[in-house]
Amino acid sequence: MEEGKGSPWAQALLRALSWLVILLMLAIVLQVLCSALDINPLAQFESALPLLGKGLTLNSLLDVQWHLLVIVGLLPAGVVWLRDAHVRVDFLYQKRSDRTKARIDLLGNLAFALPFLVMILPAAWDFTHRAWRSDEGSRSGGLNDLWLIKAFLPLGMALLALALAVETLRLLRRAK
């Protein structure tokens, strides 16, 4: 897919993620500013809020930064794959015919991406499920309900697996 083209859902996802990058930058600036001014906690709540618990602290902001970075990195992986914007070794690839490129990509999908996803999807699901079962939260005054954030790992990998399946079907037609 060319830049600026693609499905509306992919465009909406990328647009939302671009806003998350801005939110990430604001969280960084706020944490640095509050740390410099020795403001901690930033806010306290009468009842626990999802993810934040009973307060917003410097550790919460640090956790938010890491988690936003994970979300921004994982969710667009499938879209990047479908746009053919992922990393490859171009010196072996660039002067080949379209049919040969399709065969190389197909081989890469089947030999590398598929086994990786077959191994990581169950592990990612288990990782998230354990966090949910144990009601995992930060031990240092950071975020609570970490399963919400950890759920982006199996979600991002599932979206990547779906993109891989779509791309592999396209490549099978082009490789003939």
From TrEMBL:
This is TRAP transporter small permease protein. One of its GO terms (cellular component) is plasma membrane. It comes from Roseovarius indicus. The complex comprises the extracytoplasmic solute receptor protein and the two transmembrane proteins. Part of the tripartite ATP-independent periplasmic (TRAP) transport system. The keyword Iron-sulfur does not apply. Residues 63-174 form the Tripartite ATP-independent periplasmic transporters DctQ component domain. It is a multi-pass membrane protein. Keywords: Cell inner membrane, Cell membrane, Membrane, Transmembrane, Transmembrane helix, Transport. The keyword Hydrolase does not apply. It comes from the Bacteria. It holds the Pfam family DctQ. The chain crosses the membrane at residues 12-33, 64-83, 104-125, 145-166. One of its GO terms (molecular function) is transmembrane transporter activity. Belongs to the TRAP transporter small permease family. PANTHER family: 2,3-DIKETO-L-GULONATE TRAP TRANSPORTER SMALL PERMEASE PROTEIN YIAM (PTHR35011), SLL1102 PROTEIN (PTHR35011:SF4). It is found in: Cell inner membrane.
